[in-house]
Amino acid sequence: MATPYVELHAHSAFSFLDGASTPLELAAAAAELGYPAFALTDHDGIWGSMEFAHACKGFGVRPIVGAELTIAVEELVHVTLLVEDPTGYRNLCRLLTAAHSHTREDASRSAGQPWVTLEQMEEHAAGLVCLSGCAGEGALAGALARDDPATAAALGRRLLAAFGRDRFRVELQRPYWRGDRARNRRLAALAERLGVPRVATGNVHSHTRRRALLQDAFVAVRLGTTLEASEPRRRGNRSSALASPQAMAERFAEHPGAVAETLRLAERLRFDLTAELGYRYPGSEEEGTDRVLAEVCRARLDERYAGSRHRADAERRLEQELGTIRQLGLAGFFLLHRELLELAREVALEVRGPESARNVLPPGRGRGSSVSSIVCYLTGLSHIDPVKADLFAGRFLNDEVEAVPDIDLDFPRDIREKLIPRVHDRYGAERSALVAAFPTYRPRGVVRDLGKALALAPAEIERVAKTVGFHERGAEIARDVIAAIGAERAAAPGWRALLWLADEAMGLPRHASQHPGGMVISTRPLVDVCPVVPAAMEGRQIVQWDKDSCSDAGFLKIDLLGLGMLSAVERCVEEVGRTRGERLDLSRIPLDDEKTFRSIRTAETTGVFQIESRAQMQMLPRTRPENLDDLTVQVALVRPGPIQGGAVHPYIERRKRLRGDPEFEIPYEHCLLEPVLRDTLGTIVYQEQVIEVAMALAGFTSSEAEGLRRAMSRKRSEQAIEEHHDRFLVGAVGEKEVPFETAERVWRQIQGFSGFGFPKAHSAAFGLLAYQSAWLRVHRPPEFLCALLNEQPMGFYPPDALVHEAQRRGVRLAGPDINRSQVLCHVETPRRRAENTTPAPVLGPSVGEGVVRIGLGYVKGVCQEEMDDLVAARERDGAYRDLADIASRSGAGHPTLERLAWAGALNPLIGDVPGVRHHCGRSITGTSSGGGRREALWEVGIAATGVRREGGTQMALPLETPGAPALEPLGEWGEMIADYRSIGMTLGEHPMAMLRDGLAPELLCSADLERAKDEATVEVAGMVVARQRPETARGIVFMLLEDERGTVNLIVPPAVYDRRRAEVRAAPLVCARGTLERREGTTNVVVSEVRELERTAPPSGAARTPPQGPEPSLTAAAFAKAKRIARECEARRRAVAQLRAVTPAGHSFGRRGH
Amino acid sequence: MTPGVRRLYMPWPVEVQVDTEGVPLAVGGVGVAGVREEWLVEDRWWTLRRLWRHYFELALLDGSNVVVFRNSKGRWYRQRG
After folding, report:
1. Could you tell me which of A486, A521, A676, A1064 has the fewest CB atoms within 10 Å of its CB?
2. Is B15 on the interface with A (CB under 8 A)?
């Protein structure tokens, strides 16, 4: 039977909270229901159109491109636009671009409602078919609903004039609302008067009826209210779920002509998004680019390989690569990247300043597979010599490559910030834009958004949100909910609704954002090939497609990525230049420094790029890297691919065997694999080794092998990989005569590798940065720590943990000081430090003379502008003398000064206060006594009355303030709490040291573990610095605790995790009991019980609550003692609760992509 | 409920005869002249009191206009329009 109906109006989740299915789900459902063609018409965007087009083609459904556009007439109304031809597509893109162009004009740059004027739409009507809009807010239906037939008729006439009789239709919908029939009768009558056909549409919002409930919840989320309160704005029923063509025809039984019109229109709407874009990148059509590229490379080769033993190899490789580039027509692509790098060089010079020590560093460096290309090396796009490092370029560039390859460039954050707008300037705002990214729903967001929509108790929502893990799905989230709020509450209808909604919502896009650095550049205006919209950051704009859609569109995507460690390294070099007068060229530091490698082998790598994680630290003492090649493997080894592929343990074991016996023979699965797996001791560690293994063992062509690798990198890759299985076995067993069992075993390793892995080239680039950062950590410790603190957030550890670890190594720190701190942290040299300044106590051997001074910018809640003014005024007019002085000339308002006072930064301005100034020995700020903060606060209250407003602060008169009265000092504990509250870290005594006396005596500290016996039962306590629950660890959670002497690794087995989810996932201070496990230089506690620290039993004999009156059996003395003990217990409980409230959240890690 | 106060739009049971597709033919013994509107309410699905009502606004042969609905249990009710 012929299909009676085609859907011409459907929303996917890319209508952002007004559509509850992915384009893929819609395409699959459309195919299942027998639709021959299907239109996706998301609100004011085509964000999901490329994904939809490819999905439809895969399912044999013809995709129709369109959008529901908002136009501003007397109100904001909708029309449905469908693309008929390339002109129409271009016009749609321009209209959508115009609709968004004004959406971020307010000061906060939050996204507003897109719209175009009727005139704009009239100018861009060619090639588009216009339907008159939906039942609720459609241009005509809306006016009729407001009982304004005159406006409806007038609008209808304008739309008819703009689009013509052939391309304007009156849209009928049947959402099963009261008034449907009347509305459609009136619309039909209007269509009659206008002389245009009617067309039926379904206004689909989900691909199944079940998902329509999520759509209800999304409406509430979008409106920021509850399901209950959003009732008038919701659809009221589930008829917006996709129905079959037959059901739709029956739904419009009164309007058979409108149903038939869907087929006639669909027949005309044949624009193919996958084939007719006409995108070109700059340089792709220029003459002579092959010659220019060859000249650049050959000239550079002469310099780089002069006198090198690698010269002949390099020449051979260059000619080979140039030949491939010529054949693929990619010379313009490489020259464009080179041009960008030159631009980056200019920007870097501006950002760093002409005198900067950083100028010896390149503006950026390559990452990813492009690092394997000699052309990239010679054009400056990579800093690794691929010939010397023996990098395989086939993954990046080969004769059969079908899409433009990726070149990813890393830049320090500050350079990247300026480079992106500069690229817009160079190529024009119309021809360059960032790639979009779509943050998707994950458990925490689901719980928060949907919990609010379901009107669940906010405190419960927060408790659950803090407990759920990043990768969890329904059943696991259900366990978390029970753990957080109890089984009884979890059984309430609202929470049950949330649990099944959560599974439906997971993975759907929530809003559009910008990709970290992917840029698209085009020869013709980008707005003709994809809509361009303003990004949240000023001066930036994004195309409406993400990286996958851009790749499917054949766009050349240039990744300008910001790499925190690169920024930190540059900051460090700058700081070294400032403090030591040394221009440090990191490309010239010795690459075999024994001290550096010793620190790596002993896992002294906190803060070091890529090898600071707990997993890396566990592995380093076992793999014992000795050179950069080892480090290259090390960086790639702790990745999901090698872990799941079973490479890790054989690699560690074979390294160990080789250390003991250099003659040890590596057991390869087959001799054919020896040449390709020699570097990694017979295991598959690098991404390109998959290609090489498939080629060596099964005779894959490079293109076939690349297809296998691509299959691995796709989402839901299992099926795609399995498609290569037969070919692999036929090749290995049939052609190469490999035993079947061996071939199967190797295939399983390849299959296991389907998680993410690094290419060797990428590892080499990252390995070098890992070494450089380790070298700086060892040889320039204060400057390195200072750089890390200034680049936060980055890395594995919060600042508090970085600081404590550095203090244990002897690095000295000092707290914020109004007369010494800069806005950022900096290193003070002895010459620069005041004589009376006392740095914080050193917990280990002192390292160098420099003291890391915490910047004023670290004080929470202060604004950067005020801190800039404050430091500038001090440097211009001299140090601040007292509170009145600072209030009268710094421009900082009262709230800011209060925060500075709490942080101890104003202590030096406090005059002598009898009984306070000299009696407290503890000096965590390195400035004055611990009693100073209260006095400073007191004086701020008198001296500083101004509140900063737009335009500045009304400064106070410099009147002398009376000294503070004798105030009770904060005490050590109070100071520590104030530190955490104000700067998120403490430089003084570790909180666990202060708590230690009141803890159970059997609780060991980290240093005690070194003396405990293997397999002994131990109990430890500490602050949680990091938690990790990798997908590859089968439910095991790794926790890192910190106490006053160091860190303790906890391994929490799944059974304990299930029992103690809330504590493991969210408690900032824990006690853990378990078995000590010591293996090859690593120490872990395998946990059998874990609880919050506050539950620690009070000292023996202490009452748990203060007694209310004397018990008859107690003597007065005994009662007084019991009361004192109870008071102490209560004070300790409160103290722990205080600490728990201010402790910085430990970093939680799952597998969050790459 | 407070004495003397009654809910507005409180539905009451009514006898409805339907055709094979569930469209009313007669309400309380009075024949249906035509269906003026038909709509569907599916709501409060996240609570224990889920709502599913298939509404019809009908012109009856006696000249009156009535609103009736069928609930998820197949029972018919009349409600003030």
Report:
1. A486
2. no
